[in-house]
Here is the input.
Amino acid sequence: MLDLKGYGWLLWDGVQLTVMVSVVSMVGASVVGMVAALARLGRCGALSLLVEAYTTVVRGIPELVLLLLVYYGAPTLVQDLAATFGHKVVVSINPFAAGIATITFIYGAFASEVFRAAYLNVPAGQHEAAAVLGLSRLAALRLVILPQLFRYALPGLGNVWMVLVKATALISVIQLPELMRNADVAARATRMPFTFFLVACLIYLAITLASMWGQARAEGWASRGVVGGRL
Amino acid sequence: MLAFLADHLGAFANGALITLQYTAASCLFGAILAVPIALMRLSRRAEAFWPATAYVFFFRGTPLLAQIFLIYYGSGQFRQGLESLGLWSLFREPWFCAVLTLSLNTGAYSSEIVRGALLAVPHGEVEAAMALGLSPLQRLRLVVLPRALAAAWPAYTNEIVYQIQATSLVSIITVMDITGVARVIASRNFAFYEAFATAAAFYLAIVYLVILVAKRIEKRLHAHLDEVESVGKRIGGP
Amino acid sequence: MRAAAYLLLASLLLVAPAAAQQLPDPLKIATEGAYPPFNYLDDQGKVQGFEIDLARAMCDEMKVTCEFVVQDWDGLIPGLLSQKYDAIIASLYITDERRQRIAFSDKYYQVPARFVVPKSSDLKITPEGMKGAVVGTQRATSFERFLRDRFPGIDLRVYATMDEAYLDLKSGRIDALMGDVVAASEGFLKKPDGAGFEFRGPEYTGSTWFGYGAGVGVRKEDAYIAKAFSGAIAKLRANGVYKKLSTKWFGFDVYGG
Here is the structure.
């Protein structure tokens, strides 16, 4: 019925790389998002302005263009800039690094929105209670605010993850052999585009389904200390 | 950089026009699709609920790039069948496949926005309409939909903004939109950062212009309310 | 696990250029992997093809090990300039325009370009006869240049790879395709998919567009690498290895006049 003409293992290699790129980018985006959210919520005006500029740019530029800019544009830009100062440098970014950097950069902005909203969701009384207990700002953040923030942020982060996984398909355009790229290679070689792109779509759907299940479990876990606490 | 712009600004402007056309067409068809799909998803009848749900799940659960490849190159695999249906002359054209995919994609996302807005219509208003003796269809047309569409507008603005960016993928099936123009110019002149930075600037300008207009419309829709702003890329799993 | 290797490779390199005349070992060679039968990816994702076999033979001659990097056509030359690899072996034609950017070895094959059309088509291959016809080819190739200059009236569609143009010719989205006679014949016409198609019109060889055959591309400061490749090509021509490989892949000598 479904004859993959020997390209099944190539797709499987692609799936592994897709999952790996997604996980690494998601971790990166969460870190960037957390830092950006703290900068935005902090008292330093210049910093929060910088973060605002960052999110503004990310919202206005397509992922594909940003990816091409990073992969093809950045190395030549650095070289040209260095050349005007009489230096000769070589910058090389491989597709894996360029892809992860771009996806992290873009989804970091969305993760920062999620964290910011989650932070604002933590009741003011919690901050006050921490202060009354004599906790320092850092200790209050670590012991009181972050655990709760995580619970409020989980649904939003789950959404970011699901969009991010699909966004990794774009890295195929700069020849990273992930799922989409390998499906494309197989489709061209066998001249069976419908078959291979459909299989690719079904695999993405399976990843999405697995993610939804995982998210439900994670939200249950994060709300374990709260009676009727499922958000 | 200035010399680069002087040489290629015309080509980019043409690309921008294509980008706007594809955005407008797909948003229009997507919006037309969204309302019936949302109503089907809220229906209690299985034959309405399941097809709509499967459609939304598929188009929200897979990458747009895969959908474009599937419909464009995939349809080529079924040329005979499409020809006998008289549809091949449409599927033959890259613009048709592009607009079809983009519309189906945004239709799925928009229907979820509409569904959310429909669920948010206060029950009291529906009851009031019932008390006035309006038929179900009249209730939908006169009370529920106007109310829901006004509520959906901020989220729908996000969807339009996302759609502008999503059109960049049509460059992959030979359409010369902003990204397509940038790729040709970049590889022909070895002007990579110039070309892609210019493309990025064009998208930024278009996106923020659209947001500006959308805000104006939002003010009209909510003349009687204080609305909180929210504009960004669409975020949401199935 | 293959994926793990990519994690290790994920790095941003800042390298000072070395002026050593010693050939890099391993020698990193970029190829497109989408231009059968010259270079393509098999079902394991590994590169295969005439150019791959030839590159291996050349590396043996030069006593270095070669390592292949798959790079899309658009980015081949930028990737070379940013030192992602040391040489390009990807049916890259030696043209005067490209010579302003990079250096080339001597040519290692040369074939003319030609239009491919459906047998049933009544298209006349003249600028007037092609007016309004939808013609496909690969982006940023000599073919694209040639079509833009010599056939301004056509509706030109440019694809990222030749394979995609074949797909669209087969499905009937484009009326004609331009490619080189060997790739089009071996990669398409002789396959079951190519049954209803044929070459039409003259063979084109003008050096303004198609240059002086396909050569190994290297950075200008690495002219010694090009020289080493030129030497290897000459040896393989002389000792019959080239002929053996060419016969294996094409059934004839693809070196050209």
